[in-house]
Amino acid sequence: MAKRGSQLADKISIDMTPMIDVVFQLISFFMFSLKVVAPEGDFDIRMPLGVAAAAAPDDQQVPPVRVKLSAGPGGELAGIAMNGTPVADFDELRSRIIALVGTDTGPNSLADRAEVELDCDQELRYVNVVRAITAVSGKIQDGQIVELIKKIKFTPPKRG
Fold this sequence. Notes:
Layout: H1 17-33, E1 65-71, E2 77-82, E3 85-87, H2 90-101, H3 110-113, E4 115-120, H4 126-137, E5 138-141, E6 144-147, E7 151-154
Parallel strand pairs: 1-4, 4-7
Antiparallel strand pairs: 1-2, 2-3, 5-6
């Protein structure tokens, strides 16, 4: 019996170049269309430790302090009021803040827990706002900085 010659003539080769091109195009497409999400802000939130719900309110809570700065003609300071009571100048404002929170600067002091809300007229000069912030935030005594209230916020601008 004669042997039939059924041998494959050549080995079939597959060209991989188009497949590699497609893979690189897909990779570049996904790289260019990727939208990097900005990481969320790290908020410094101090949550209270587990406190019973029926706990008595803290006797040493400081009521919110609201300071109103009124503007006169030309943006000059026309008046200062702390919680609705008129104040003569920034030195008296600082004295009233000290009388309210004291000069203790510990981590659980009244000054650390107190908060000031500044309500400034839109036309008021910025230098007066800075002087008010300086008056409520601290003072220099005997070459040392005495911190008063650290939490200062502004009322939202009024529309109208």
